[in-house]
Amino acid sequence: MVDVCQSIPAVGLGTWQGAPGTDDDAALENSIIHALKSGYRLIDTAQAYHVESTVGRAIRNSGIPRSEITVVTKFWGEWHHDPAEALRISLRELDVGYIDIFLMHWPWATTPDPERKPLRPHESPTIVETWKKMEKLVGEKCRAIGVSNFTQKTLDELLAAATIVPAVNQVELHAFNPNLKLVPYCESKGIHVMSWSTLGGSRPGEVNQGLKNELFVGIGKAHGVSAGVVSLSWAVQRGITVIPKSSSTSRIEENIKLVTLTEEEMDKINNVHLTISKYRISDDIKRLWLEMDGKMVMQGWSKVDAGWEDEQGNWLV
């Protein structure tokens, strides 16, 4: 397997927004082309975003050599039983020759389309069964494999049976959910951490504290950058790759111009989840949650199953 961890850019462009055949689709293509021409060399996408064909078209139209671009995509739960077919679909949709890093989007699986029945952690295909099938995909068309939204618990289970260590673990990570335990764990296993929603997002009815809170704004003013760049710089300074999404050309250009924060500033941001707010954006993504046996679960998995929390509700990552 290619050692992609040695060459993964610190900042990439996320592509989770844009409906095919709409103005959003055209805007997404233009934003990807602008990002690549501005120096970005990492594009992150997923089958669940329904934009792989747009991403591929933008890469082909960018004028940037394919060999210079790291392309990451992910497959959804209904393909856990057949990741080889998922790979064929992504290769067809992207049409860029090969995929650099192919990720299992979530640890949970469902039955195949069209039923898509949520499966419990012990039901087949388990994460280990899916991973063993993914290991067979590594080669010319799939340079490396990895996971997304895994914790120490699910990674421990996977690594106990793996012959290939995941190249990447892409997780929700921001100052309000800093993953202060998960990141060093991944580093100790040789797994590169990639962060989604690094700017913090916002809970329903609330403003994005990562962009509006005086701590981030003040640090930004001290360095001559926006509050958003402060959050991105904080993550990258921890050795994490960030993949912010933006359709604004000026914001795309700004997001790649990081600054070096002081040790005191890093400590303050590391403690934001204790001093300002603590939350998971994932808790509010309605698509992920459903009721089973009278309890709200994440597609059949409880937060304990996923390793997010212990039985007492204490956060573990």
From TrEMBL:
Gene3D superfamilies registered for this protein in UniProt: NADP-dependent oxidoreductase domain
Marked site (Lowers pKa of active site Tyr) residue numbers: 74
Ligand binding (substrate): 105
Keyword annotations of the record: NADP, Oxidoreductase
A molecular function GO annotation: oxidoreductase activity, acting on the CH-OH group of donors, NAD or NADP as acceptor
Residues of the NADP-dependent oxidoreductase domain: 11-271
UniProt-listed CDD domains: AKR_AKR1-5-like
Domain of life: Eukaryota
InterPro entries the record matches: AKR (IPR020471), Aldo/ket_reductase_CS (IPR018170), NAD(P)_OxRdtase_dom_sf (IPR036812), NADP_OxRdtase_dom (IPR023210)
Active-site residues annotated for this sequence: 49 (proton donor)
Entries under PROSITE patterns matching the protein: ALDOKETO_REDUCTASE_1 (PS00798), ALDOKETO_REDUCTASE_3 (PS00063)
PANTHER family xref list: 2,5-DIKETO-D-GLUCONIC ACID REDUCTASE, NADP-DEPENDENT OXIDOREDUCTASE DOMAIN-CONTAINING PROTEIN
Family, similarity comment: Belongs to the aldo/keto reductase family.
Record's protein name: Related to GCY1 - galactose-induced protein of aldo/keto reductase family
